[in-house]
Amino acid sequence: MPSHDTTEKSVAARFLHTEVSRLGAQPGLRSLPPGPERDFLTLTWGPIVYRTTYAPESHRLLPLFLRALNEAIQTALHRLPGSREEIHLLEKTYASKVFSAQDQYQDVGEDVIRQIFHNWKVSLALPSIELPVRLRLCWIVDDAVLASFAKQVDLAAKEGHDAHTSGCPIKVLEENFPDLHRRDSNPASETVAPMDRFVSRKRPRSPSPSPVSHPDGIPPPDDDSTDVKLAQLVSLFPETTQDLLLDILVASGGSVDRAASTLASQRICKSPTKRATPSTPAVQTSLAAHIHVLPPTPGTAAAPSPLKRQPLTRKGKTLHLFAPEDVAAHTPCTIIHNFLPAAQATALLRELLDESAHFARYRFQLFDRAVESPHSACVYVSTADEYRQHTSEYTYGGTYRSNVRQITPQMRRVSGAVQRAVNDEVRKRIRSHYPGGKKLRYQSPKEWMPNAAFVNCYDGPAESVGFHADELTYLGPRAIIGSLSLGVEREFRVRRVVADNADEGDEAGETSTRKNTQASSESRADAQGQISIHLPHNSLLVMHAEMQEEWKHAIVPAQTISPHPVSGNRRINITYRWYRDSLHPRNTPRCRCGMHAILRCAQRKRESRGRYMWMCYAGFAPGKKSCGFFQWAEFDDDGEPLWEKKQTEDRAPILRNFVDGSSEG
Question: What is the pLDDT of residue 133?
């Protein structure tokens, strides 16, 4: 008879205990060395995934598949009986681990993966315990799994609706070492038949040394409660209703393994009365299906005008873009995949991984509290004199920075290729996107020449940076940035900044105005929907001249990442920048507290949108207060400052172009 405390626990609470909290008390797990591995095993729950397909298309599909899988599981959690706090804790403790190494896992069979899974658990020195689900079952993503997923996505794109991926398969292997009660898996000597269903497993044998027969071959139920078993099935089959799961569990004699095999072999899933709408929009190979191009008017040479059938962004949803033509068409960016030769990209990555040991986290003040950036970074310049300038004259966020280093040999070596590519993309952008094929107002007509770089390190899926626009103080108006990504693939999110609506209407037209305002607000909310650009290893993203003034961007935390064979869980990002000579700190205004003012662009108010201003930024430095300094900034059409009084521009030093002295020139 269960105790009173046990009967009062909800399904969510029991699942937390079975799959997470009890593991921290296990002597073997508790004695593991402190670090991410122990935290992953004792503080989280979620699948172990092995990737065995490395076809070119898999690089695009795998992140989408994992995201759809995670979101389905997150959705299923809310169907579990339990308090809001318990469900929230389940969401917070969910984490998956993806093993991805082409030289080890490409096209290997199920028996090999089972052995690899077994060896991984052996390396952890796990004690003989009742294993949680994640240490008994590993998941496989192979060509067949991604092909089924791609079919669903492409079909949705063709029909113009969101992808319904709940019926997509996932392969699951069982390996029970060193479970205290299950001894049916001995991968070292067992021959596993080829998998003809997306879950393949054997029924657990009785731990008793004397075999016991059971009617219909159904093993007796184990000691887990029905609620815990049901929660385990929900985590494996999140799209199947609980009523159906319970019926199959009862029909299987209370055996989770037998119920899971039945569900898997029959591919049972919920049949909704109407098409289900997942939480993310469909992802297409190309967004051409959303664009209708009118033919040119006879007798004119005007270019066709693209007309959108529907807005591509929606409030609360993220539009994922992969194809370079879609990125260029719908964001202020262009992307170049496989930018550097593979060997050169690897050499640069290795060099900067070593450099990242010297990176630091930027500290700043927010609402009178000192906070720390959720990733580490460092500034790179060309010469020792520029190092001195950047630590004693240039300010960032209201303070001087000490983590400044001289450019590395590999960074300098690739800077020529970055400079050429960025300038080529800028010229294309002007011809194809800007009115009249002319540069934007305040955009510099000069060649873009990188002379400074911020290098960021994101160590693990949780490290990130929130939505922001880059500081324009030394870049000037309409700044262009070349961003080179190395290591783990991460999402680069962008969203448009839409100006607030001006007050309009009078009392007589209040009802009509209210309706118009509501429709306008909904349209503005859709326009500010997020767009995700996936940045794989060795990709160059060019942020064009409209980026900083009209958009904000972020690197968002990831629930799952595919480890890179060189960098592991780390992503290195080099943002090459061109600091204008005319905006050297010896020329820029100082505020009343004696600090260098920063340059910002007004974005929200319609009447001032697009105007630049010098402001005191000392309030963002820990322990300091702002003096409230404000001054409108004036620039000519090429973005050069129009100073109110004579500046010392002729005496200000000039930063050296990274390309000077590089082997590429």
Answer: 87
Q: How far apart are CA 240 and CA 268, in angstroms?
A: 7
Would you give the distance in Å from CA 141 to the centre of its chain?
Answer: 20
Which whole-number Å values give the CA distances from 270 to 70, 171, 241, 335, in the listed order?
Answer: 18, 19, 6, 39
pLDDT class of 58 with cuts at 50, 70, 90: confident
In a domain, 510, yes or no: no
Which of 153, 174, 195 lies at the terminal end of a domain, its last residue? 174
Measured CA to CA, the distance from residue 104 to residue 116 in angstroms comes to: 10
Which uninterrupted H or E stretch holds 318?
A: strand 318-321
Range of lowest pLDDT (68-72, 341-345, 499-503) = 499-503
Q: How confident is the model at residue 544 (pLDDT cuts 50, 70, 90)?
A: very high
Alpha-carbon distance 89 to 13, whole Å?
9
pLDDT band at 239 (very low <50, low <70, confident <90, very high): low
Q: Which residues contact 194 (CB under 8 A, 6 or more apart)?
A: 109, 110
Residue 657 carries which side chain, given as an amino acid letter?
A: N
Angle formed at CA 466 by CA 620 and CA 425, multiple of 5 degrees:
110
Determine, yes or no, domain membership for 207.
no
Nearest CA-CA partner of 321 in 493, 461, 524: 493
d(CA 498, CA 550): 8
Share of residues in the chain with pLDDT > 90 (%): 30
311 or 474, which is more confident: 474
Residue 355 lies in a domain: yes
Cα-based angle 587, 592, 595 (whole degrees, multiple of 5): 55
What is the 3-class SS of 459-524, one letter each residue? ECCCCCEEEECCCCCCCCCCCCEEEEEEECCEEEEEEECCCCCCCCCCCCCHHHHHHHHHHHHHHH
User: How many domains, in total, are found in the chain?
Assistant: 2
Q: What's the CATH code of the domain at 415?
A: 2.60.120.590
pLDDT, tens digit, for every residue of 457-497? 999 988 888 888 999 999 999 999 999 999 999 999 999 98
CA distances from 471 to 439, 444, 481, 598 (A): 21, 17, 12, 8
Would you say residue 304 lies in a domain? no
| Residues 326, 86: Cα–Cα separation, whole Å | 41
pLDDT of residue 296: 45
Instruction: Give the end of a domain, one of 140, 174, 208.
Output: 174
Helix, coil or strand: residue 600: strand
Q: Which domain holds residue 328?
A: 320-500+521-575
